[in-house]
């Protein structure tokens, strides 16, 4: 089997991306990570009402999940981020600052940010799902 390869592209003919890549082209074993929320291993909500604390917990959970699959956060090629509507647009840079400590900022994953009315459990402010490509 060939080693995984990842190529991140942002054509000049598309809007300049801010902290993400428009395209992630990858070869290897694909790993789908379910949406992670700000709960710990016991299911307890971490950071109730604190957006930054919740984002930190979510990325910690993503890191734990991808490592369980034999990969690292650098293997993430696609990320979908869901914020509840009560999160202010002014808080998005806080999310980006935390994200940048976890992802490869030189070649960031293709990403989508969506605002939703609510998540599955009251109190959750953010949920992130991801796709990674790891060694076969």
Write the topology of this structure:
Blueprint: E1 5-9, E2 23-27, E3 29-36, H1 51-68, E4 76-84, H2 92-102, E5 110-116, E6 126-134
Parallel strand pairs: 4-5
Antiparallel strand pairs: 1-2, 3-6, 4-6
Helix pairs in contact: 1-2
Structure, described:
By secondary structure, the protein is α+β, with helices and mostly antiparallel strands. It has one domain (5-10, 30-134): RutC-like (60s Ribosomal Protein L30, Chain: A), CATH 3.30.1330. The chain is 21% helix and 32% strand. It contains 2 helices and 6 strands, in the order E-E-E-H-E-H-E-E. The strands form 2 sheets. The chain has a 4-stranded mixed β-sheet. Strand 4 (76-84), helix 2 and strand 5 form a beta-alpha-beta unit. Helix 1 (51-68) runs parallel beside helix 2 (92-102). The radius of gyration is 15 Å and the shape is globular. The termini are close together.
* CATH H-level superfamily title: RutC-like
Count, helices = 2
Radius of gyration: 15 Å
> Multimeric state of these chains?
single chain
Shape: globular
List unreliable stretches of 5+ residues.
none
> What's the CATH architecture name?
2-Layer Sandwich
SS elements, strand count: 6
Briefly note the CATH topology name.
60s Ribosomal Protein L30, Chain: A
Please give the order of strands in the largest beta sheet. 3-6-4-5
How many structural domains does the protein architecture include? 1
> Could you say which structural class the secondary elements and strand pairing correspond to?
alpha+beta
N-to-C order of helices and strands: EEEHEHEE
Mean pLDDT: 94
Q: What percentage of residues falls in helices of 4 or more residues?
A: 10-25%
* Top CATH class: Alpha Beta
Task: Quote the beta fraction.
Answer: 25-35%
Largest β sheet strand count, sense and barrel closure: 4 strands, mixed
